[in-house]
Amino acid sequence: MQYCTRESFIDYVCVHANEYDFAAQCVSSWHLLGLKAYILEKIREIGFVKGVILVRCLKLDNYSIKEEDLIFDKNSDILVFFEKYHLSSSREKLKKLFELLTFRVNQSTRVHCIELVRSQIPDYEFACKVLLKSNSDCSLICLDEGVGSYKSFRELFSFSWHISKKSALVFILSKILNVFLKYKINRKEESFTLLSSTVNGILVNSRVSDAYKSVLLFQNCCEKIQLPIKYILFLTQPFETSIDKENSDLIISTYDDIAKVYMENGYYIVVKPHPRESESTLDAYKKKGYLVIDTPGAIESIIGRFTNMPKSVFGVHSTSLVSLNVIFGIKTTSIIYIIDDRATENFKKNTVSFMKRFKDFVDFPANV
User: Which of 296, 269, 273, 295 is nearest to 283 (CA)?
Assistant: First the structure.
């Protein structure tokens, strides 16, 4: 594996921009899936694709994406770097901020355009560096972040606020800087997401969902995952924010109530952990007799390898509840409405938008 910092990755791309069709960054297996779908769509468009990718680390030497996950279409030539964690000093951050604020677009003729790809938010800083340090032009592509891709500014701020006041402040300042850079560079932006928000509600991007499905069908030629004939599937929720932590016992007890009903009717209970799920929570599920799938990766990436499909899929406000329905047409159920009258007020405020936004893709029953 080759390692580099984000800064050295950007410098490399600036030097070699004319050699590549795209430069991408991804953190999670869901981002990687979206990137593979994007690459497949580019191959359909231009025949052969050359790109460079930076696999970002969650923290020091902790990667959600593994080297064995980085298998790409034969009609592509992809160079991959893994991020070498670097904690920037205050002086480095101030220098970078000054460079961005005083940046001027080089007006020289640009015959090549490289696409800068990452999830949810365009990388305006990256674009500034490319326009300043290379003779290539650039456009910005946003991959699907999951349900976060469709949240409003207010919802995203609220999420940051419940993590910490510092996170909320950083979110606001980053938003202001991004708006400034967006209008300063004035480059084409495009979303490569499963859904689109329109005046008529949220609609499926069939071109994108088809690319996702094609990638998944190719990946699912791997070894099968043996599962019972009769079972239901729980998608766990990592209890990271204060809102989820406050309601964790209620969510788990509701899963147990659902499990009891199905087990009495001869069903097994299978749990697919979220990639950031805690070991203690998973151990608790195992002690209850639930089967825990330990195959890494997003559920979308492995469900095609199941020997049998689940009778039902349950979750809270997981991205997978939406994507499994959009990509595979699998019926999914959220327990949000079941626990609504017992959940905290903050939980209700943050989940009501999920219910309204994705009601056409996810079921929201009022009771078990």
Answer: 273
Residues with Cβ within 8 Å of residue 328, at least 6 apart in sequence = 213, 303
At 269, list the tokens.
Answer: 């209970």
Helix (H, G, I), strand (E, B) or coil at 187: coil
Under 8 Å between Cβ of 209 and 194: yes
CB-count exposure of residue 2 (10 Å: 0-12, 13-18, 19+): exposed
User: Comparing 24-28, 46-50, 279-283, which segment has the lowest mean pLDDT?
Assistant: 279-283
Return the ∠ at Cα 242 (arms to 93 and 292), rounded to 5°: 105
How sure is the predictor about 344, in pLDDT bands with cuts at 50, 70 and 90? confident
List strand residue ranges (DSSP E) for the chain, in order.
2-4, 22-26, 49-55, 76-83, 113-119, 137-143, 189-192, 195-198, 201-204, 231-235, 268-272, 291-292, 313-315, 332-334
Q: Are 276 and 296 in contact (CB under 8 A)?
A: no
Tokens of 22: 């795209």
Cβ proximity of 173 and 328 under 8 Å = no
- pTM of the predicted model as reported, rounded to 2 decimal places: 0.85
DSSP 321-332: HHHHHHHH---E
Using an 8 Å Cβ cutoff, are 367 and 160 in contact? no
Cα(281)–Cα(248) distance, rounded to whole angstroms? 10
